[in-house]
Amino acid sequence: MTMEEPRPRKKRGRPSTSPDGDGDDRKRGRPRVDKQDESAADRRRTQIRMAQRAYRQRKESTLEELRKRVSELTKTIEVMNNTFNVCSDRLYASSLTQDQMLDLNEVATKFEQLVGEARNPGDHGPSTPSPRHEAFRCCVG
């Protein structure tokens, strides 16, 4: 060969990693994001969505249970109130001493305050006694 003739250059190839020789060669530049990584992010988003849904469902079921409990307790208070009123009316009609009547009136007033607080939990102001207990107070006191 003479110096004027350029030699043809050989391209160096990478040896194939697969035994049959037709494997994918790595390309130059930034490696591509694998589909596996994208699906991992999607799986994480799905996991977060499912956790949020479960939290909302637990919160709603807890609220529903608490509403039912409040309803049951309110009914119980109403039954207690009616029972107490029947009992106190019977006692007022019977022959009680003045001290016993005052004690009954005091208990009735306190019971009405408690029932009033149960009906209006945010209202903690002074409650007014019922008209029938007020009429009794005028007669006794």
Automatic annotation (TrEMBL):
Alphabetical keyword list: Coiled coil
Coiled coil: 56-83
CDD domains to which the protein is assigned, alphabetical: bZIP_YAP
GO molecular function: DNA-binding transcription factor activity
Basic and acidic residues bias spans: 24-45
InterPro entries: bZIP_sf
Gene3D superfamilies, per the entry: 1.20.5.170
Domain of life: Eukaryota
Region feature Disordered, mapped onto this chain: 1-46
UniProt xrefs under PANTHER family: B-ZIP TRANSCRIPTION FACTOR (EUROFUNG), B-ZIP TRANSCRIPTION FACTOR (EUROFUNG)-RELATED
The protein's name in its UniProt record: BZIP domain-containing protein
Native species: Saxophila tyrrhenica
